[in-house]
Hints:
4-stranded antiparallel beta sheet; Alpha-Beta Plaits; 18% helix; alpha+beta
Amino acid sequence: MDVEIREERDNPLLRRREYEFIISFEGATPSRGDVRAKLVSVLNSENRLTVLDSYSTEYGMNKAKGLVKVYFDEDSMGVEPKHILSKNFPAKEVKEPEAKDKKGDGGD
Protein backbone atom coordinates (compact mmCIF):
# COMPACT_ATOMS: atom_id res chain seq x y z
CA MET A 1 0.00 0.00 0.00
CA ASP A 2 1.42 3.37 -1.04
CA VAL A 3 0.41 6.69 0.50
CA GLU A 4 0.58 10.08 -1.17
CA ILE A 5 -0.11 13.19 0.94
CA ARG A 6 -2.00 15.60 -1.31
CA GLU A 7 -2.54 18.49 1.08
CA GLU A 8 -1.34 19.36 4.56
CA ARG A 9 -2.74 22.18 6.68
CA ASP A 10 -2.51 23.43 10.23
CA ASN A 11 -5.66 24.02 12.23
CA PRO A 12 -4.44 25.95 15.29
CA LEU A 13 -7.96 26.63 16.53
CA LEU A 14 -8.66 22.91 16.96
CA ARG A 15 -5.00 22.12 17.79
CA ARG A 16 -4.43 19.62 14.99
CA ARG A 17 -2.88 19.07 11.57
CA GLU A 18 -5.09 17.81 8.76
CA TYR A 19 -3.87 15.73 5.82
CA GLU A 20 -5.68 14.81 2.62
CA PHE A 21 -4.23 11.64 1.16
CA ILE A 22 -4.51 9.08 -1.61
CA ILE A 23 -3.65 5.43 -1.02
CA SER A 24 -2.88 2.97 -3.79
CA PHE A 25 -3.37 -0.74 -3.14
CA GLU A 26 -3.60 -4.11 -4.82
CA GLY A 27 -6.60 -6.42 -4.40
CA ALA A 28 -9.33 -5.66 -1.90
CA THR A 29 -9.75 -2.27 -0.25
CA PRO A 30 -7.63 -2.23 2.93
CA SER A 31 -9.37 -2.11 6.29
CA ARG A 32 -9.70 1.09 8.29
CA GLY A 33 -7.16 -0.22 10.81
CA ASP A 34 -4.61 -1.03 8.10
CA VAL A 35 -4.98 2.40 6.48
CA ARG A 36 -4.68 4.13 9.85
CA ALA A 37 -1.57 2.11 10.80
CA LYS A 38 0.09 2.97 7.49
CA LEU A 39 -0.70 6.68 7.93
CA VAL A 40 0.71 6.66 11.48
CA SER A 41 4.00 5.28 10.14
CA VAL A 42 4.15 7.59 7.10
CA LEU A 43 3.31 10.72 9.12
CA ASN A 44 5.51 9.61 12.02
CA SER A 45 2.68 10.53 14.41
CA GLU A 46 1.53 9.07 17.70
CA ASN A 47 -1.07 6.32 17.35
CA ARG A 48 -3.28 7.69 20.15
CA LEU A 49 -3.41 11.18 18.55
CA THR A 50 -4.12 10.11 14.95
CA VAL A 51 -7.75 9.99 13.79
CA LEU A 52 -8.71 8.63 10.38
CA ASP A 53 -11.76 10.72 9.58
CA SER A 54 -12.81 9.12 6.31
CA TYR A 55 -11.63 7.41 3.16
CA SER A 56 -13.43 6.12 0.10
CA THR A 57 -12.72 4.46 -3.21
CA GLU A 58 -14.08 5.14 -6.65
CA TYR A 59 -15.74 2.17 -8.30
CA GLY A 60 -13.24 -0.08 -10.02
CA MET A 61 -10.18 1.86 -8.87
CA ASN A 62 -7.32 0.64 -6.69
CA LYS A 63 -7.05 4.05 -5.06
CA ALA A 64 -8.83 5.70 -2.17
CA LYS A 65 -8.98 9.34 -1.06
CA GLY A 66 -9.29 10.35 2.55
CA LEU A 67 -8.70 12.72 5.45
CA VAL A 68 -6.66 12.09 8.57
CA LYS A 69 -6.22 14.41 11.58
CA VAL A 70 -3.25 14.44 13.94
CA TYR A 71 -3.99 16.18 17.24
CA PHE A 72 -1.42 17.98 19.38
CA ASP A 73 -2.77 16.41 22.61
CA GLU A 74 -5.57 14.12 23.82
CA ASP A 75 -7.60 16.98 25.32
CA SER A 76 -8.00 18.53 21.87
CA MET A 77 -9.64 15.34 20.59
CA GLY A 78 -12.83 16.25 22.48
CA VAL A 79 -14.20 17.90 19.33
CA GLU A 80 -14.31 14.56 17.45
CA PRO A 81 -17.71 12.84 17.24
CA LYS A 82 -17.92 9.71 19.38
CA HIS A 83 -18.69 7.42 16.42
CA ILE A 84 -15.47 8.50 14.67
CA LEU A 85 -13.43 7.88 17.83
CA SER A 86 -15.01 4.46 18.31
CA LYS A 87 -14.08 3.51 14.71
CA ASN A 88 -10.48 4.59 15.30
CA PHE A 89 -10.07 3.16 18.78
CA PRO A 90 -12.35 0.09 18.97
CA ALA A 91 -10.62 -1.36 22.06
CA LYS A 92 -11.15 1.84 24.02
CA GLU A 93 -14.59 2.66 25.24
CA VAL A 94 -15.64 6.18 24.38
CA LYS A 95 -17.17 7.56 27.54
CA GLU A 96 -20.44 9.41 27.32
CA PRO A 97 -21.47 11.94 29.95
CA GLU A 98 -23.58 10.33 32.63
CA ALA A 99 -27.18 11.47 32.80
CA LYS A 100 -28.15 12.78 36.19
CA ASP A 101 -31.32 11.45 37.77
CA LYS A 102 -33.73 14.38 38.20
CA LYS A 103 -35.49 12.71 41.13
CA GLY A 104 -32.36 12.42 43.22
CA ASP A 105 -31.25 8.91 44.13
CA GLY A 106 -34.32 7.25 42.54
CA GLY A 107 -35.70 5.84 45.82
CA ASP A 108 -39.42 5.95 46.68
